[in-house]
Amino acid sequence: MPAGLTKTAIVQAAFDLLDEAGMDGLTLRALASRLGVQAPALYWHVRGKQALLDEMATQVWLHVSEVMAGLPDGLPWRQVMATYALTVRSELLRHRDGAKAFSGTTLTDPAVVRRQEVTFSSLVRQGFALQDAALGLVLLHDLTIGFCVEEQAVRQAVAAGDDRYSLGRRAELLGPDAPLAAAAGWVIFGAPDTRFTQLVDLALDAVAALGPAGR
């Protein structure tokens, strides 16, 4: 095993490579070249690309868990859940293809999961059954992952000069017989920050039906 080659160094280099080359360019061969070693040297620390992604995702969710565990005691449940969605989106967007790369991964540090105790305790104290609190967070989690996958794909296509997402072009293709569909495009393809906030609010309205006020 090469001296100085650590799992921490490998994971950081993998993040740098992901940001430069995207998910398709993140290969163990390319990562080894970046670190100045042969690919087999990486297997001392990660068994393959999926294991590498698991380690990277664990770092992402570690940051999310730190934010959630640090929220003030007694913060209203709606703000707790909104903070979760906003934090997850922020962390995923920090890295190119972040949502796609870290979906379906497994956490390698149980401390990340243990920190969820703080969030669940807060929600249960505010009247949620544990199952409903978990379902509410899963709803926001799945919404955020799907939103970010689409957001990053569109952003990269537009940056590469793809005009398929032009609202003006869309209106031209629809023609005068579909004014409502054309107008809806401004919502569907509008500012991502605004659209995401609106979707989170809608999701939280649904979660409210699970809470004590909705029973």
Summed up:
By secondary structure, the protein is mainly α. The protein is 72% helix and 0% strand.
> Overall mean pLDDT score?
94
Kindly name the structural category: mainly alpha
Oligomer state equals single chain
Number of strands: 0
Low-pLDDT residue intervals, each spanning 5 or more residues: none
The number of helices is 12
> Overall 3D geometry?
flat
What radius of gyration results from the CA coordinates? 21 Å
Binned strand content: under 5%
Helix content, binned percent: over 70%
C-alpha termini separation: 59 Å
Outline the structure in words:
Helix 5 runs parallel beside helix 9, helix 5 packs antiparallel against helix 12 and helix 9 packs antiparallel against helix 12. The protein is an all-alpha fold and 215 residues long. It is flat, with a radius of gyration of 21 Å. The chain is built from twelve helices and no strands.
